[in-house]
Amino acid sequence: MYSDAMSRGEEKFWGWAVGSVSMVLLLAFVLLFLAALVSILRSRLTGGMKLVWVVFAFCAPFLGSLLWFVFGRRDASMPERR
Description:
Elements: H1 2-42, H2 47-59, H3 61-77
Helix pairs in contact: 1-2, 1-3, 2-3
């Protein structure tokens, strides 16, 4: 009887723990995506390149956002070559 109550308590705890971690990860993902979109739209890129990055971010939200912050933002901050 005690072990049944203990097992139900553990199941409840793990359910809350997994749910909480999932919510934190989902929130982090959404914030990363929104931050990437704002950063892309505020960058000094031309309209065509902004569109390419925005479409890529929408097609592959996690990968597109990460790649923007790793490669795209650095390219956008460089002065234009003539």
